[in-house]
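On clarity, I found the account of how folds are encoded harder to follow than it need be. For illustration, here is how one protein appears when written out as sequence plus structure tokens:

:::
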Amino acid sequence: MSDPIQSKPDSHPTLSLAARIEALLFVAPEPVTPGQLARVLDVTTRETEKGLEEIEYLYRGRGICLQRHEGTVRITTSPKAAPFIEDFLDLETSTPLSHAALETLAIIAYQQPVTRPHIDAIRGVNSDSVMKNLLSKGIIQEVGRAEGPGRPILYSTTPEFLSHFGLMSIEELPPLNIEEIINDNHKNHSEADILKE
């Protein structure tokens, strides 16, 4: 009879690849890339992606979901479960973001990675304090530096941004039609000019 203490665990686990990926995502302290998962599980990135797709399919309509952001994945609660979770944990609804913060976030979300001077140019005002606030909340992050004079810092959204707005990936943002916005602004300015006359 073999000694149970000295016997080694089976090197070929009976868990499916999707189940092993799920276990790793469950204990991961932060979002991970499919490549990281593939290395740990000794499989290809393509196989890992198939496992992730299986998990996404299994989680449809469930209280947890697979969230993707900038090439990383993590398990998180479903955005639709937020009211129940807040109630269960006795959490107050998060402080609403100001108009300036939402405006800045929209620019970052649709044009990321983007620099603060670019954001300032679009908004027409200094965005320094708004950016500091969004950074402190973990909704945006620094992701590098742009080429060019002064090498300004580049900013992008974070997984917390997705959670805050109930998105599973940045691709869920509604399409942005710049021409339509410009035409609407032009129309509104024209109507205002007519009313002034």
Summary: The first strand starts at residue 64 and ends at 69. The chain has two domains: 17-82, 99-196.
